[in-house]
Amino acid sequence: NLGNEQNKRFINFKNKIELKNLDFKYPNNKQNGIFNINLTINKGDIVGVIGKSGSGKTTLLNNISNLLKFDSGEIIIDEFTILPEQNYLIKNLSYIRQDIYLLSDTIENNILFGQKKTEDSKYKIQEKLIQVGLNKYKDNLNMEIGHKGSKISGGENQLLGLARALYRKPNIIFLDEPTSNLDYQTQKRYLDMLKNLNITIMIIAHRIEALNICNKILLMSDGKIIDQGNLEYFKKKYSNFEKYIN
Ligand code: ADP
């Protein structure tokens, strides 16, 4: 709705996101959504979200990032209180999905992804490629990656997506963890790198290893957060909580 677009609020996340009694139902599917979500994300948190497939993990992240519009409750981002009818954009949030949208274009253009080429963009792109472990492409920015990245590996697709996100200098990252694409070593490096960024991250975790970098874990079921705590807490409380990760 145009009126709402015009009133869109642009927010830079600094310290805190709070969700209060947040509800969302899919218009075509009234059973599903997220229900009575109360949650605080503090600067520097790495929040892992776990739960069976269909438990609402993606719906939760999509509501915080305003891709879906919650029906009731509020989201408070630093000093801004967002009500259901308000549109907003968290400008310094990067959202990395599993199915990264790659252009049939060069490495460089896939990282720029619409941003302008500048005097130092080449250098900055190289820096990000090195940071994510794609050193081998740093002197080959004009390489075409093919349709949906067909000329590079699945793992490299994911790393390229991460380089694109980091190029934007986010203060907060939402991430649907890549699963099958990364071998064990690459995955470990990916996770270590995320931890060392020292920024706020919310990660939908599909493997138990990802929880090692999280200081807070949310367990979701049927659209609700049914438990939260750190990894130690979960390990103690649930003898086989691995079954909630998929
Ligand atoms: P998860 O990320 O934990 O796998 P989702 O958030 O994708 O779960 O889905 C939560 C529930 O909402 C599921 O029951 C799913 O079928 C439903 N759902 C997801 N997307 C849509 C949609 N676009 N329209 C209707 N229902 C949806």
Spatial ordering of strands, largest sheet: 8-9-10-4-11-12
- The amount of beta strand, in percent, is 25-35%
The ligands found in this model are: adenosine-5'-diphosphate
Question: What is the typical, i.e. mean, pLDDT?
Answer: 93
- The tally of beta strands, per DSSP, is 12
Total helical elements: 8
The rounded Rg comes to: 19 Å
SS-derived structural category:
alpha/beta
**What's the main sheet like?**
6 strands, mixed
In N-to-C order, the SSE pattern is HEEEEHEEEEHHHEHEHEEH
Query: CA-to-CA gap between the ends?
Result: 36 Å
Low-confidence stretches: none
- What is the helical fraction, as a range of percent? 25-40%
Name the overall outline. globular
Question: Secondary-structure blueprint of this entry?
Answer:
Elements (H helix, E strand, L loop, with lengths): L1 H5 L2 E3 L4 E11 L2 E14 L3 E6 L5 H8 L7 E6 L2 E3 L5 E3 L2 E4 L10 H6 L8 H11 L22 H14 L4 E5 L7 H13 L3 E5 L3 H4 L4 E6 L2 E6 L1 H7 L9
Parallel strand pairs: 1-7, 4-10, 4-11, 8-9, 9-10
Antiparallel strand pairs: 2-3, 2-5, 5-6, 11-12
Helix pairs in contact: 4-5
The structure holds adenosine-5'-diphosphate (ADP).
Task: Describe the model.
Strand 5 and strand 6 (80-82) form a beta hairpin. With 246 residues, this protein is an alpha/beta fold. The mean pLDDT is 93. The longest helix is centred in the middle third of the chain and has 14 residues, at 154-167. It has helices at 2-6, 57-64, 107-112, 121-131, 154-167, 184-196, 208-211, 231-237, and strands spanning 9-11, 16-26, 29-42, 46-51, 72-77, 80-82, 88-90, 93-96, 172-176, 200-204, 216-221, 224-229. The structure holds adenosine-5'-diphosphate. Adenosine-5'-diphosphate is lined by residues 26, 28-29, 32, 51, 53-59.
